[in-house]
Amino acid sequence: MMAAPCRYKWLRVVPAIMKLLESRFAWRLAGIAAAAFAILLSAGPARAAASNWVGNQYAAVRLITAERATGSSSMVDAGLEIRLAPGWHAYWRDPGAAGIPPSITWQGSHNLAAAKLSWPAPRRFTLDGLQTYGYAGRTVLPIAVTLAKPGAPLVLHASVAYSACRNICIPFHAVLDLTLPTGIAAPGAEAGMIAAARAAVPGSLAGIGLSLRSATVSPNGKGGSELAVSLAGRDAMLTRPDLFVEGLPQGAPGPPHVASAGDGGGVRLLLTDIDVPAARLVGRNLVFTVTNGADRAATFAAQPALAAPGNFAPASLIPVAVIAAAFFGGLLLNVMPCVLPVLSLKLLSLARLAGAERRTVRFELMAMAGGIIFGFLLLAAGLIALKEAGAAIGWGIQFQSPWFLIAMTIVMVLFAADLWGWISITVPGANRAAAIPIRAHGRHTSAFLVGLFATFLSTSCTAPFVGTAVGFALSRGPLEIVAIFLAMAIGLAAPTLTVAAAPSLVSLLPRPGRWMVWLSWIFGALLLATAAWLVTVLARVSGVDAALAVTGLAAVLLGLLAARRWLDARLVGLRRAGVGLAGAVVLAALVVPLVGMPAQKRQGADQSGIWHPFVPAAIAANIADGRTVLVNVTAAWCLICQVNEVTVLDRNPVAARIAGANVFAMRADWTKPNAGITDYLQSFGHYGVPLDVVYGPGAPRGIVLPDLITAPEVIKALDRAAGATREAER
Amino acid sequence: MSSAWLGRRASLLHPPRSLTRRSMLATFAVAPWGLAALAPRAEAAQLAALSRVLIELRPPQKPPGFSFLSARGEKRTLADYRGQGVVLNIWATWCVPCLAEMPALDRLSALVKDFTISVLPVSIDTQGLKVVKQYYAAHRIAHLPILLDPNGEIAAAFKVPGIPASFLFDRQGRLVARCLGPANWDTPHAIATIRRLISDGKDS
Question: B36 to chain A: which residues are within 8 Å by CB?
């Protein structure tokens, strides 16, 4: 009832105000207009802690201070308050697609030594796909004013330029005057607003319970790039995260895609529409501001690393090279010590079957290949499920589990014993891969299980190419994982399938004879060597005690089996199984508590002092100091890593070079699970070790070395990375 | 063996809910959308239809005197376009609503060239040629001339409250319509409206 007449009265005034305002919009004379406004409005009671509003009905600004007088401090908390009509916004220090952020010049002020403007966390505005970052409603930009002469009056004379937009934009120029007298610095009415604005200025990531895991960039398939920022933090739930990037050569990315960052909590933010090729962003200094609605914000700097999917150019397709790598990796697995005995002996055993049984041979081989393929599909399914569940996955992570190591050690020992003919009782079909032909019934099942077993055995080895292919697969979706694992399976099954396709090839194999027994012994020794290696890995993962216990268990097991065989010759019907089992149980009881014991510490830094522990932040710091940085990611269970260390890194000329003052070498030990190292690997699209990266003034984004390195390659990369400094010296 | 291979205590063994295969697939298919919904809702706006923002002036008015500069710094006035229809647009590179309609104006320019209608975007950027050239290059503006008014004289002459502001002139140089704010300039309906206003049905 009361409202209606009031509203009408107000409406009648509007055209008059509009006319007045529009007539003032000779923009060259904006300053004069602003001054006129100031005079118009200065009729009200003067408040020491705030200047008058200068602007129009859409946007206006004024200066405010927290204190009413300068007091005795050398600092005064001030602020630029911006008032915007509904639908209007002003801009953040980075306006996004376009806009004029508020800028202040202080000419004409007295007793002002410095004035530092701070920026509360921005909001995102979108117009027809164009992204801008700024503020709506009422905002205060805090200003830390330093006085030239503490205790003397402060005269602020601010010329403020900014733009405000709705569906149209207006450039504003306001001249603001505020004088603080001398006197007691009692807080004014605006003190609370300035304090609230200070609290809204983004602080450090740690301040909101987050830490930066990784920042990576990769091509987005549209000529631009994708920027992924992974933030860790268990307690900090970001419900409405937004991410702003400053320092891009051009473009203003839209809102991020948000995903959970996996095991450690936190969040992964992905900006997919950056109009700059990935190569231009690698190593570039970018400033990120992450916000969560209005409640939390943090600013941090990062130099994105190249995410490796970018190394394989076409985005969605699996490159032929990766499929080929998977196939050859699988093929090479055939000759790795943990697989060779199983499949090759099976193949050789078939040589016994005469040509008359061709069909049988073929079926048996097909069953074995089927077992291999089934095994790999199982692994792929397991990995996909783990990946979907958000677990950190990688090729070789099974070696980080002591239980896997113990189980595999025992399996290797048992299997070696089997090859040596020390196990003559019927153990589960899988272990009966040895030279003795099995009766026809269940033969296919047995062959299938041999294939399956070989697959799982192969996971305790890794062959060249396997890491590359699996790394690529794990960085992609389920389809790619299945495709690449299938290629690997076919590679591993290739010899089997070849013989199945042409059973006559069997006749090319050497005639069975005494040599096969010798071969069985050699292969058995190979398996035992693998077991020994697994024990050394266990020593690194769970400590020397556990390793010794497992070694003891294995030795006793082997001894029992040998003894039993010896006894077998004499005493038939001894409760041999019972003896073996009892021994195994007793030893297992000893091992279990030992595995649980804290592992012996083995930090990245070794005795020689050449290798420093891996600290990602040290990379940039050392590059800044003009040094070259070598990051070596390794693991005790990674054979290629050991080969690299022994043949290249720990040997001259590389060892001498990295011991020099100009090189900072860091070793990241992935023997045990380590989320930081996993993230570092993944920032290069690697899901396994080894990974060697060389950084330097000449290569701030890093040079990724091949899996199997050579000394000349490392030296060349170090030279290239140091490039910039060397040229500067010339 | 396989559970050992899975490394970290396999969450497969302890799935969060009893996940049947189908529900797992469903979760997988839906997850990205669910996450998309998590993304911050930006204050979005689209370009308005020209008919919604264009104000026709009847009868046509005599425009205020104004001039602007070509990319080479030559002074231009409306008289230089006598006999043509003109769509004059006042814009700046710092003005997002202006940038929003620039691609539409660019396409409009190509579409109405044959009807002897010129689209003239005049930038009021104080930095002038440099920033406009950059913007044209970065956004592949191909059919628009570079025209400048670094002192904002046009905006003052037309007393526009803000930009973008556009003005339509018929072939006699009379002001026939104006519009404030960005518009979708290159729809068939918009082009028909522009042609009607400029030619007033007499010629085309």
Answer: 257
